[in-house]
Amino acid sequence: MTARGLGRGFDSLIPTELVDDEFDPTSEVDEKISKLQEIALDDIEADADQPRRSFKTDQIEALANSIKEHGVLQPIVVTKSGKKYKIVAGERRWRASKIAGLAKIPVIVRSLSDQNRLELSLIENVQREDLNAIETATAYAKLKTQFNMTTAEVAKRVGKSESAVINTMRLLSLPEEAKRMMVEKGLSEGQLRPLITASPEMIAKVLPKIAKEGWSARKVEQYMVTAKIEAKKSKISYNSDYEEDAKRLTEQLGMKVKVRVSARGSGDIMIRFKNEKELNKICTILTA
What we know:
Blueprint: H1 27-33, E1 35-40, E2 44-45, H2 57-70, E3 76-81, E4 84-89, H3 91-99, E5 104-109, H4 112-128, H5 133-146, H6 151-158, H7 162-169, H8 176-184, H9 189-192, H10 200-213, H11 217-234, E6 236-238, H12 243-253, E7 256-262, E8 267-272, H13 276-287
Parallel strand pairs: 2-4, 3-5
Antiparallel strand pairs: 1-5, 3-4, 6-7, 7-8
Helix pairs in contact: 2-3, 4-5, 6-7
């Protein structure tokens, strides 16, 4: 079950509500100690001790619109509190569901002891370091979204740097095929990290090469840098409106000159010289 949250600040770099059961290292434990059911929204209340008290109206409304169309894709997590249920994780979804006009919402009911057991199980799994990168990223995401931890708190619990946790979690934004191939082909985090900001088309093009030819992380990085440069170049074209200017400069300098102008109006002038003597001539003319 997968849902994408709306990021903010550091969280904009990583999926904020993305836990795929396929890669969840404690899904079996979670299933044993958790109870999935639907509960009336009026029987659920926010946790007064929840550190996050600011919720952007436009983001909640956007989520409400998504819920109207697709429903609540990821249950919220609650614990029993008297006659009510207190939210452990998912207050945004609860608020948005109210706006969407829902009467009930899917919830996972846990006791506090169950919550602690699951948290310890997740941390132990990560610290054993026998998980693949996607499973590790999923564990981080679960700690963050279902235990109300900040990225810094997750990093402290698992004994990693905050930047390492952020970079690993960003792998979850890769297309499903990339994540699956990463697991099946044993690809490393370093090999796939350069693809995180790439377009789906670019990922589909380069991923088979990485897997088949065993590209190193360095080669993937170099390929992506070159691809971005080429993409920028392709956006700049020769404009016939400037051919006369190029011709006049060519005659004045006695060297081939080309003028390139982008669709936005910016551009550059290219002067081709054959040797150092011609280069010095250009410098003399430009500085005269």
